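Sample A.
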Amino acid sequence: MGALLHSLFRPGRSCVSLGGGGPCPSWRGPRARRGHQAGTMPVLILPVEHSQDTRVGPPAWREATKALTQKAHQLTDRCGQEAVTTWKPKDSVRDPHTARHLCRAVHILPWRFRVETLKGGSTMEKPPPGEGVTLWKGKMKPPAWHARLPLPMHRDARALQTAEVVHAHARGARLTAARLSRAQHQINGQLRLLQRQREATDHRLSEVRKALLINQQSVKLRGYRPKSEKIPDKADSMLTWEKEELKSMKRKMEKDMEKSEALLKTLASCRDTLVFCCKERLQAVELMNQPLDKVLEQAGRHSWVNLSRVPTPRTQGLKTPPPDPVGTYTPECATALYEAKRLLMESKDTLLDMAKNEEDIREQQQQISDRVCASLAQKTRETLELKDRLNMTLGLMRGTIHRCTKFTQEMHIACGLVKGPLSESHLETREKLDRPLVRTYQRHVGTQLPEATRLAQGTDKLQRRISHVEENLEELLSMRKNLTWSLSCKKVGQDVDYNVVRLRLRQRHPHVCYEQARRLVNDWDPRTPPRAESSIARK
């Protein structure tokens, strides 16, 4: 019996269970174990033989000591587990299906370097991705340790964390300011390009307006032609067509100027917004001595806005962060950059359209002016041809008039000779009807001489012929006058058309400005009668 009790209470064997605080089931009998498992009060069944207990202390006293020891063991285990759990990471929970001696190997397996095979067949060890401290010598990268309680260096850690947050905010503000500054420079570049294109378009518009003044001058100058030369012709139709086309060009270019002016104002407003946002972002980086271009280079992005740059084959750098109202990339900055990007695209298309329209209008204006000058030059050649024909006709008519005049004079002389002298005393003897020979002949009946009758008939016939020739001469003189007038009108018309062509070629020269052409038009008075026509009318 004593040996049995000694075996039950030998040193090194616990008599208190870890679960319920009662006696350990390991030293109970089989029936006691079954009773404990069934939830009943465990009972110590002693052997039948009488046991001699040599201990002096009472059993209650020993049981109290054993209960106290069991509570101390439980408290120690709980506090140790809590202490270890406090300093252990949250995710470091042992897998119940893994053997205890393999837990550490399984736990540190994700920390070890990974072997990757390159294209050439060689291998290279790389640390696993994620946060942590890379141990190059041990070929391991443990994850970051997240403690649940403040460490002894908590104040320094918080100070470093605050400094890191401030520096991160400063870096983000500097990067945002660099982006805004780069966008501002690009907007300024587009403003300069738009200003140059507006100057070119305005110059072309002034050329179109000058062409309208030249057209007005041409019409006014052609209005100084004689009335016979003002019959509508193809040159007038060409001038009217030129006027309509120039007005259409003028309206088109004025629309381009209005559109570019609105775009210019929008670009200027966007630039001011970018400048304001950039200055606002730069308030947090006043002590950072680093160029903004260097910041973009470090970020791996030369521009977030420029669309004309050819994309590089390498991978782009930092992506655009999402807008944060309390961060460095605020919604105002995002809106300003998006508006800058949209305006850059719109201004690029507008510049292409304006340049194309300006080039097309320049070529079209040159072609129209050449066609009008060609039609006026052809009209001048036709007028010259008609003038030469009129000149030849006048020459032929002049010879006919001279012959008719000479013939009329000779007939007047012949008529005077046939009529004879005015006084009877001037008659010759052979012309007198009472001469002796005639009187002797007229003594017999029926011997009357027809001399007087024949003289009278010849004189009358000469008079009629002279009257007819004089009428023809008057018609010739009248026709010559008309031909002379027409020749003079043709000459004036030729001079006017030639002067119009010369004026157009001189006025469309680039050195002639719009004001000079306008003064030339204002100096003319359309109510002034043409000098050539008035001088011809006086003649």
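Sample B, a different protein:
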Amino acid sequence: MGKGEGCQITLDQQLSLSCFTVFSSGPKMERKIAIIGAGVSGLLACKYTLENGFKPIVFEARSGIGGVWSQTIESTKLQTPKSFYQFSDFAWPNSVTETFPDHNKVMEYLQAYAAHFNLFPSIKFDTKVTSIDRLVPSDEDEHSWDLWGGTGKPFSSSGKWNVTVQEARNAYQVDFVILCIGRYSDLPNTPDFPMNKGPEVFDGKVLHSMNDDLAAELINGKRVTVIGFQKSAVDVAAEVANRNGVRYPCTLLFKTVHWMVPDYFLWSTFRSLNRWTELIIHNPGEGFFSWLLALSLSPLLWLSSKVVESCLKWTFPLKKYNMIPGHSFLNQISSCMFTVLPRNFYDRVQGGGLSLMKSRSFTFCKNGLVIDGETTPLVTDIVIFATGYKSDEKLKNIFKSTYFQKQITGSSAPLYRFSLFSIREGIHPQIPQLAILGYADSPSILRTTEMRSKCLAHFLAGNSNLPTIKEMEHNVMNWEKSMRLYAGESYRRSCVSVLLQKYSNDQLCKDMRCNSKKEKMVFG
């Protein structure tokens, strides 16, 4: 196949290597690429840059690969069917028969992937990056650029990045940086409390779900309260209730209820989202007839959401425990909020091992928590915050430049900044020679990240240029408009909605001049 020819993409080998390595001609060794993080996105970035002739350096703060999978509770397992959490060129071993493997098997799979493609020699373990800073000539005016980096190309003849590593004498100077630091680690998001009403007045132990010491011996025989109602909160509460039983019941304290679906139901949901369902979804930049068709078929989308909600209400005692959310199932999945219901969750509630408590606010006291609207404190020994992470702040903090920090999280930053990561190789138009991978949410995050990694490698190999900054902004504004249509107030810029997953992948295929094959499967 000659340069520029298209290729067909199947579900199991999306954008396979044959689609783009033919473009990788010429030496790339002289270009230095730094990849920060050796989680799933870091491994993918390393693999595809290596295959395109580069010699990347991967900086990993911990002693091993895996990212968030390397530090999780015992009961954690995939919340995506493994067939949708699989590398396109490295299948799960036949010995893994479960649809939702546990975290140990996920780690074994990632280890095998890294070994198979010889990624370990490129990784510097126990090497924490403290900051990155762009070095530019004094006469360079970044604010006057019409094209990304001034040229729309991946590398600059003048600008470099300094990568500063903890306890190192000298910084590493590189031509391009790929940030793969993820959303779910390092900087916990915990509420603020009035003076003398926070954890400092509590005689018990306060942890975050990210803590490494969240072990069985710590929670056994203790009264535990878990704060939150997303994936980690529900998983932690279920594990504590399973270990301690009714003698020391666990309390799950939350502000907002979300739809939780059993794993078998999630599989059905994934399978039903195929190319036909694209017809009823408004896509960014759609034409008049596509808009009209989606508008006329939109009641089917609403109806399917109501059917799911009715099934969940009928199957589980949601009304009995006041667990019916105030938002639709469609709104939730459009915001990348997939929460899998742990097995026997409501059995534990009915049996007394798990208590569900909804409250808008709470404070600490000496022996527990003071719940808004309650007259007596909730006595507890351990409080575990499963309230997420300050992802934007973590991303911002790695930049030494205040200008780049403001581009990430400042009030003057345009709203497209994280939507753009969903479409164009994780590239921010105002931050040259840098890309971000693994930051966006997606119901099929591994495949989403692999698609972007391949597209980024294609761009680094010099086979495509970016459009003007204004065109990129316009593209992303259209994306945001479509996302807000379904997600409403729950819209998050980092989310690649399950409804627009195929569209997102199709755009990446278009960037690489590959044809996405119209299959009857999800995430093609």
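Observation for Sample B: Confidence is low (pLDDT under 50) at residues 1-27, 410-425, 518-524.
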